[in-house]
Design a protein that fits this description.
Layout: E1 20-25, E2 30-35, E3 41-43, H1 60-66, E4 78-79, E5 92-99, E6 102-109, E7 115-119
Antiparallel strand pairs: 1-2, 2-3, 4-5, 5-6, 6-7
Length: 120
């Protein structure tokens, strides 16, 4: 079943009628569709080769929500190697964020909740 160029289409094996899955033929460096039930495979049409990148843009308000109460997040790492500039407590939760300017390290004091950042 050839693609029409209007978007991705499902392809089915002519032998087993099972769905064909994409994979790279590393030797020939082409995209092929293969059947998981039998040995059937077919080359993908080059006009159907599509690699895309989906970048999600966040508003400043969405980023603020992420920074709200990170102290209670058990998945974030903690450090005792920094001192809060407000209360001088020595434990903080930290995480990184990549921006156009570079990498930024965010801290949130485990005692008073003050947030600050360090540019890496």
């Amino acid at each position: 079943m050839a693609g029409s160029g209007a978007g991705p289409t499902l392809r089915f094996c002519p032998e087993s009628n099972d769905l064909l899955y994409p994979r790279e033929d590393k030797e020939r460096r082409v995209l092929v569709y293969f059947c998981r039930s039998c040995q059937y495979q077919e080359d993908a049409d080059p006009k159907d080769w599509c690699v895309y990148r989906n970048e999600v843009q966040h508003t400043s308000r969405e980023k603020t929500v992420v920074l709200q109460d990170v102290r209670s997040d058990p998945t974030l790492p903690r450090t005792r190697d920094v001192r809060c500039p407000v209360c001088t407590h020595d434990e903080a939760v930290f995480f990184t964020s990549s921006t156009e300017e570079g990498m930024t390290l965010y801290f949130s004091c485990c005692s008073c909740g003050h947030r600050w950042r360090d540019y890496v």
